[in-house]
């Protein structure tokens, strides 16, 4: 059908609410594309040719080191990286259809390096470097450096851009804040009447994923790669928890590693093994609008993202290609059955659903209403439930790796992700910290198909949403709840969610009930970059924890029991942990579990319940990850038992100066410091309940206890604590108050401050590392070498000065730190300190020479500099602390003050003093 009537006609048609009207429109015939395309061999061309013959085998060998499932861009990138390391002849790439099988109407080809986190930026920069290299060799990639222009319609969006601009210094990304007039100069096509500014990234560009895929495979073939087309994986076979072989329609291939790069089908391929590997993905409909040729666009036409309108557009072979990420997406293949072939996977476009994006496009580029339309393509894309990539070794089976969930930016990610997977295979670790993208961040609940269907409605919109602090999902809620959840909701809890668990962020009795008088479920929000609306609630809860009694639900923490008949569990933990775990029964050992480089794979507390029985308390986000790490190192024969008991216990933390007195009224156990000292554990009766594991610590530095209560007793114990605590001023406290307490006390948390590249020397925890214990723990040699050589970065606390919390923008993490006017590091966790009455930042600083090379960092170096923290382009002076401060309180406690979370040397200087810049 003809599309010559233009987009003005399209606009009228898209108003229709009847599918029949759309199907019978003049555009219906133009919505179909050829079933199969191959990219031509002309470098830089955007034209297609389906006449190229296949150069690949149809029969895989009987054995190989690595089998890669999926011949799309991700599988090709992994194969390419392995081939570059000499593994080409030992690698087999299996594709159900044809390599690089794709449709030119079904990709955007956007290549941008400025991503939400540093790890993602590094992966994207690696991919761009690879694309430029191939392009320089004359291989087809479709690469064009066009730059990208991100538009802002609101003040908050500009704040976000200024934050990104500040971060770009640390991430080595060139970008510039530009005025509306400059935006118009960079792209004359746009209307700027409602634009307040923009972010210009000159080194971004566009490419062609299918061309890139073919070029990667072609180079890999030259290095021995075997490619099997029209070959499907039927079963992934493991033995003793490791990959053994892959059964295909063309025979079985014995192998050592299996890489699931199956894209749309990655979740289904994950179910082809026993046990099955969870790869939580669901497809959503995704649209690409193509115009016919527009004279004068030129190759330098930039990629334009109108983020507040949820749209983007770019030049494509003299035409405009446009798309977007709607706020409410439409799930595809809701029955879970994804068609096998590209032709079968095509979906008819839903003009009604696309209409809001179309209106935004015409609003931004009014002149497009007179441009002829080529077609609207509906090409579903697969998204993970948290809108992040899925990378790494599966926790269920060793040597089973996954690279999937690239959410429409596969070309931008492929080179970096391919290198990371190849690193893991060939050297056992990635050179980029991947913990935020690691597949082990998911639980089984995340792989539930109905959960994924609901979640995928909101995930695509996150691409262009304002990145406010503490984002909360709206779908998949009320999923994991502790037994005291109803009581917390009735008490006014406003909930955040982590690993599917609902946990109170803060409490607010006002508006806690609906019109029928029933407690409402309320989701936490922080819709701004300045002083949040929950400030006073958190302040009140904080003060209660410091001066009276605060109660917090700690049930989300990971809880794992480890035991054995003999000393095997002790030997295992001595090998895994850097601290000495062979302490008396009743001891609590705070320790790291490290990788071979000394970085933290886990940061946990171990309570020794009996001679050969430990309970491990680890971060919530580690529930699958840390268990997998332990299981990879278990001795053979089942001599050590490991059980995840997270869901068996409700954890209630009580903290504050009167907790010991209150708890003594509810138990017959002697709680005096002599009988139950700090950092020990006991089994208590509380009220009428028994079997409660009580730990004398709080994870925030306050005096108090964490009670691990069997679920059937949880509501009873909670009620007794609340009744007994009334005369002591007990009140509920949420996660945000806990965060402030620990930031003021200089406590580092894994996943926020610590990661797989951070060592105890860098974060001030060397005093917990016991080099002289009889077992050589993992990472010992690396830590000894670092101790001898010195650290190249150091964890510090910064108190921001000359900052008005009511008027100025807040630090939310990721801000650059400057020392004597030069960039030296970034913040990690931040909070407002209610005792300091200042904004507090935790973070790492480096000693960089003029060329950017890292030199050793010493205490003297840190303390001798004048510091600033840059918040959205404005620098504020800051005072650096190296040690945990002693905060003033009405009720000082020797036990509490004796414990130091960071570094064992007490700093005698006045930590509240402010020394202005010279």
From TrEMBL:
GO cellular component terms, A-Z: mitochondrion
Protein origin, superkingdom: Eukaryota
InterPro entries: FAD-dep_OxRdtase, FAD/NAD-bd_sf, FAO_M, GcvT/YgfZ/DmdA, GcvT/YgfZ_C, GcvT_C, GCVT_N, TrmE/GcvT-like
Aminomethyltransferase C-terminal domain segment(s): 796-880
One matching Pfam family: DAO
Residues annotated as domain GCVT N-terminal: 486-773
Record domain FAD dependent oxidoreductase: where: 65-423
Occurrences of domain FAD dependent oxidoreductase central (ranges): 428-482
Similarity annotation: Belongs to the GcvT family.
PANTHER family documented for this protein: AMINOMETHYLTRANSFERASE (PTHR43757), PYRUVATE DEHYDROGENASE PHOSPHATASE REGULATORY SUBUNIT, MITOCHONDRIAL-LIKE (PTHR43757:SF15)
Protein name (Swiss-Prot/TrEMBL): Pyruvate dehydrogenase phosphatase regulatory subunit, mitochondrial
Organism: Anopheles dirus
């Amino acid at each position: 059908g003809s599309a010559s009537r233009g987009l003005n006609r399209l606009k009228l048609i898209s108003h229709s609410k009847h599918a029949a009207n759309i199907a019978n429109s003049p555009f219906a015939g133009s919505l179909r594309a050829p079933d199969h395309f191959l990219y031509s061999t002309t470098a830089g061309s955007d034209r297609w040719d389906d006449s190229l013959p296949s150069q690949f085998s149809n029969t895989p060998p009987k054995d190989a080191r690595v089998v890669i499932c999926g011949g799309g861009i991700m599988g090709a990138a992994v194969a390419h990286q392995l081939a570059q390391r000499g593994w080409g002849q030992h690698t087999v790439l299996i594709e159900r259809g044809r390599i690089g099988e794709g449709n030119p109407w079904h990709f955007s080809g956007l290549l941008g390096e400025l991503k939400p986190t540093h790890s993602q930026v590094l992966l994207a920069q690696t991919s761009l470097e690879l694309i430029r290299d191939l392009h320089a060799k004359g291989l087809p990639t479709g690469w064009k450096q066009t730059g990208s222009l991100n538009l802002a319609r609101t003040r908050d969006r500009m704040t976000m851009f200024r934050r990104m601009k500040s971060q770009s210094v640390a991430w080595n990304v060139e970008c510039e804040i530009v005025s509306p007039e400059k935006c118009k100069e960079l792209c004359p096509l746009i209307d700027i009447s409602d634009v307040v500014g923009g972010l210009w990234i000159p080194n971004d560009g566009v490419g062609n994923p299918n061309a890139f895929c073919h070029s990667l495979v072609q180079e890999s073939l030259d290095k021995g790669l075997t490619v099997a087309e029209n070959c499907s994986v039927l079963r992934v076979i493991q033995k003793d928890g490791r990959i053994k072989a892959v059964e295909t329609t063309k025979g079985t291939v014995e192998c050592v590693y299996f890489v699931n790069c199956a894209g749309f089908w990655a979740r289904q391929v994950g179910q082809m093994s026993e046990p099955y590997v969870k790869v939580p993905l669901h497809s959503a409909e995704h649209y690409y609008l193509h115009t016919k040729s527009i004279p004068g666009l030129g190759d330098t036409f930039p990629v334009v993202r109108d983020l507040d309108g949820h749209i983007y557009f770019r030049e494509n072979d003299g035409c405009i290609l446009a798309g977007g990420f709607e706020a409410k997406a439409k799930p595809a293949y809701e029955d879970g059955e994804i068609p096998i072939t590209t032709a079968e996977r095509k979906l008819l476009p839903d003009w009604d659903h696309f209409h809001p994006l179309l209106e935004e496009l015409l609003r931004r580029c009014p002149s497009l209403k007179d441009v002829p339309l080529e077609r609207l393509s509906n090409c579903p894309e697969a998204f993970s439930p948290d809108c992040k990539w899925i990378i790494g070794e599966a926790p269920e089976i060793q040597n089973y790796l996954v690279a999937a969930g690239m959410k429409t930016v596969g070309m931008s990610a492929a080179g970096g992700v391919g290198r990371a997977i190849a690193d893991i295979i060939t050297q056992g670790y990635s050179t980029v910290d991947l913990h935020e993208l690691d597949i082990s961040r998911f639980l089984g609940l995340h792989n539930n198909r109905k959960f994924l269907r609901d979640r995928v409605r909101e995930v695509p919109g996150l691409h262009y949403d304002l990145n406010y602090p503490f984002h909360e999902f709206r779908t998949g809620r009320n999923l994991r709840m502790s037994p005291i959840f109803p009581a917390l909701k009735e008490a006014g809890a406003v909930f955040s969610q982590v690993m599917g668990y609902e946990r109170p962020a803060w409490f607010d009795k006002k508006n806690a009930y609906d019109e029928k008088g029933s407690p409402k479920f309320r989701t936490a929000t922080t819709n701004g970059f300045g002083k949040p609306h929950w400030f006073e609630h958190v302040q009140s809860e904080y003060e209660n924890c410091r001066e009276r009694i605060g109660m917090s639900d700690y049930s989300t923490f990971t809880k794992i029991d480890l035991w054995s008949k003999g000393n095997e569990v002790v030997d295992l933990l001595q090998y895994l942990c850097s601290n000495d775990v062979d302490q008396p029964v009743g001891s609590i050992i705070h320790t790291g579990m490290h990788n071979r480089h000394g970085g933290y794979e886990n940061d946990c507390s171990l309570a020794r319940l009996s001679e050969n029985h430990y309970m491990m308390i680890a971060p919530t986000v580690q529930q699958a990850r840390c268990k997998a790490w332990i299981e990879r190192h278990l001795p053979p024969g089942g001599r050590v038992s490991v059980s995840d008991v997270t869901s068996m216990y409700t954890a209630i933390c009580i903290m504050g100066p009167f907790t010991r007195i209150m708890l003594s009224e509810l138990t017959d156990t002697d709680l005096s410091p002599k009988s139950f000292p700090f950092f020990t554990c006991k089994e208590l009766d509380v009220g009428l309940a028994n079997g409660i594991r009580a730990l004398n610590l709080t994870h925030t530095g306050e005096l108090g206890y964490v009670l691990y209560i069997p679920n059937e007793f949880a509501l009873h114990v909670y009620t007794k604590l609340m009744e007994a605590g009334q005369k002591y001023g007990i009140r509920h406290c949420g996660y945000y108050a806990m965060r402030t307490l620990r930031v003021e006390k200089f406590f580092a948390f894994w996943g926020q401050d610590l990661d797989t590249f951070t060592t105890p020397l860098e974060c001030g925890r060397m005093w917990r590392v016991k080099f002289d214990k009889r077992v050589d723990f993992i990472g010992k040699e690396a830590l000894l070498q670092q101790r001898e050589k010195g650290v190249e970065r150091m964890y510090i606390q910064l108190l921001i000065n000359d900052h008005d919390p009511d008027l100025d923008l807040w630090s939310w993490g990721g801000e650059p730190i400057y020392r004597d006017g030069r960039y030296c590091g970034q913040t990690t966790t931040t909070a407002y300190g209610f005792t300091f009455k200042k904004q507090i930042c935790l973070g790492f600083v480096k000693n960089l020479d003029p060329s950017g090379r890292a030199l050793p960092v010493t205490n003297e170096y840190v303390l001798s500099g004048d510091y600033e923290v840059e918040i959205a382009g404005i620098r504020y002076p800051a005072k650096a602390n190296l040690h945990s401060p002693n905060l003033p309180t009405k009720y000082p406690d020797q036990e509490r003050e004796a414990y130091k979370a960071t570094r064992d040397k007490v700093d005698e200087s006045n930590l509240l003093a402010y020394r202005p810049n010279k």
